[in-house]
Amino acid sequence: MNTILKSIDGINKLVKILLTFSLIVMTIIMILQVFSRFVLNIPLPWSEEATRYLGIYAVFFGAALAIRHNELISVEAIPDLLPKTVQRVLKMIVLVICIVFFAILLKYGIDLVSKVSIQKSPALQISMSIPYFSIPLGALLLILNAIAALIVVFKGGAEE
């Protein structure tokens, strides 16, 4: 199980780099757009679309990293009242349900990417399969990280 966790954490190093890169590029594009629109009086027609697509990827990358480290927002009031063993079982059930949901998202995301591949985005003129690819990619990363979180909970909650 440690090998699986190390493999997923290795993938997460790349995900962190991609998340950082997408946030930096989004920031640069937004600054360029503001400068271009209000100083040069020449708005960039592609900037809003590019930041939207980068933002979608960033959300999926961030969610995958957050689920791995148990940092997603959740209501813990009732589980905190339960005994530790029941909390662990409840957490494992929730993670399994999440994995099932992410698997459904992966399946339908792949279908959607194939359906929109002939469409072009309005401003960037790229295939719409590029922005829509964030759905199956994000779902796959969420599955991997939910499995890692499940392994940690199964091992007793302490990670080496």
UniProtKB/TrEMBL annotation:
<comment type="similarity">
    <text>Belongs to the TRAP transporter small permease family.</text>
</comment>
<keyword id="KW-0812">Transmembrane</keyword>
<keyword id="KW-1003">Cell membrane</keyword>
<dbReference type="GO" id="GO:0015740">
    <property type="term" value="P:C4-dicarboxylate transport"/>
</dbReference>
<feature type="transmembrane region" description="Helical">
    <location>
        <begin position="14"/>
        <end position="35"/>
    </location>
</feature>
<feature type="transmembrane region" description="Helical">
    <location>
        <begin position="50"/>
        <end position="68"/>
    </location>
</feature>
<keyword id="KW-0813">Transport</keyword>
<dbReference type="InterPro" id="IPR007387">
    <property type="entry name" value="TRAP_DctQ"/>
</dbReference>
<feature type="transmembrane region" description="Helical">
    <location>
        <begin position="89"/>
        <end position="110"/>
    </location>
</feature>
<keyword id="KW-1133">Transmembrane helix</keyword>
<keyword id="KW-0997">Cell inner membrane</keyword>
<keyword id="KW-0472">Membrane</keyword>
<dbReference type="InterPro" id="IPR055348">
    <property type="entry name" value="DctQ"/>
</dbReference>
<feature type="transmembrane region" description="Helical">
    <location>
        <begin position="130"/>
        <end position="154"/>
    </location>
</feature>
<protein>
    <submittedName>
        <fullName>TRAP transporter small permease</fullName>
    </submittedName>
</protein>
<feature type="domain" description="Tripartite ATP-independent periplasmic transporters DctQ component">
    <location>
        <begin position="26"/>
        <end position="154"/>
    </location>
</feature>
<dbReference type="GO" id="GO:0005886">
    <property type="term" value="C:plasma membrane"/>
</dbReference>
<dbReference type="Pfam" id="PF04290">
    <property type="entry name" value="DctQ"/>
</dbReference>
<dbReference type="GO" id="GO:0022857">
    <property type="term" value="F:transmembrane transporter activity"/>
</dbReference>
